[in-house]
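JOB MANIFEST
job_type = single_chain_structure
chain_count = 1
residues = 196
[input]
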Amino acid sequence: MILPIVAYGDPVLRKKCEDIDAGYPGLETLLSDMWETMYQASGVGLAAPQIGKAIRVFLVDTSPFAEDDVLPAAERELLKSFKKVFINARIESETGEKWAFNEGCLSIPDVREDVQRMDTITMTYMDEDFKEHTETFDGLLARVIQHEYDHIEGILFTDHLSSLKKRLLKSRLGNISKGRIQVDYRMRFPDAKRAR
């Protein structure tokens, strides 16, 4: 089932999310709905707060980036096949150089800005079968994971911007929260009190 994506301004996007256990009710259906919702909106990642649930769950499928000829062939190959569910994730370390990349977010449509993030992360997480993993990710893959991880920490990509950039975006962000924006996927707007 395709779920409405929560728009900027909804309090759930600012909550530090809670861990879940293997007995979380309807988890398999929730994950299936999240994949369907993300693909319908042409996203590469989706976190549970973006569909209104303050739980530490997000998923990532970086295959759309595999078509970017600017990236090295080895990185494109990795991105092409990377599809994972992350449950109860924790970033253990962030290392390497900071680098900028133009980011966007399904909860903040039509806003894209350069965000500085560390190149390499090591993360502990559970997969959909609640098997624990500790892995290191780098490059664009690390960036996508960091973006989604921020969501379960109550952080949005706009929080990484300078004060000036935030001021310049203020009215656009206000319009998003009021539903004064055209999108081609279902959204729930906090100030408009409706989904469309």
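[summary]
DSSP finds four helices and eight strands in the chain.
The helical segments are 27-40, 73-80, 139-152, 163-177.
exit_status = 0
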